[in-house]
Design goal:
The protein has about 170 residues and is of the alpha/beta class. The protein has 7 helices and 6 strands, in the order H-H-E-H-H-E-H-E-H-E-H-E-E. The chain starts with 5 loop residues before the first helix and ends in a 12-residue tail after the last strand.
């Protein structure tokens, strides 16, 4: 049996008493929704099938960045990327979400049109949900940029409207 020090036991019991006093505030509540970080199972499984850690590292980098900035966020998965769920958040981060369905892209488009903030990186939306490459980003109109050539490290983007640059930074 593990024994706790008397000082730890005292602190733990005091914390438990304080929590008990506030229990009514903590039960049957809804989380504060501010930001959403998208974890794309399709991008991990289809685009990253030969190197799933490559996708995971992009995701974990954003996860850590949001935690380090003490930003309130929830994690969304492929089944949550719809207009109803997205409407609850002020911003959405798509870390190299290469594989998006047409309906997911449309939900994101409507979300941004409705005033939602978007941060997208790398090859986001260049592939469909099954990992088939598109000719251009599904979200090219939202990004104000088109896919020109190459893949991975040697890809190039062409800005369609440099005046839209301000829309991609959160103030």
């Amino acid at each position: 049996a593990t024994m706790c020090s008397p000082s730890f036991d005292r602190v733990y019991r005091e914390a438990a008493r304080e929590i008990k006093k506030r229990e009514s505030w903590l039960s049957e509540t809804e989380p504060v929704r501010y930001g959403a970080l998208f974890y794309s199972e399709n991008s991990r499984d289809f685009h990253g099938r030969n190197d799933p850690e490559r996708y995971t590292q992009c995701y974990l980098g954003w996860y850590k960045a949001l935690l380090d900035r003490q930003t309130l966020f929830e994690v969304l998965t492929d089944r949550n990327l719809n207009e109803q769920d997205l409407s609850q958040y002020a911003f959405l981060v798509l870390p190299n979400a290469a594989c998006l369905s047409d309906s997911q892209a449309e939900a994101i488009r409507e979300y941004v049109r409705g005033g939602g903030g978007l941060i997208a990186s790398y090859l986001t939306s260049l592939f469909d949900e099954d990992g088939n490459k598109r000719k251009d980003f599904a979200l090219a109109d939202v990004f104000g940029a088109s896919y020109v050539s190459g893949l991975d490290e040697d890809y190039n983007l062409q800005a369609n409207n440099p005046a839209r640059r301000d829309q991609f930074f959160m103030h």
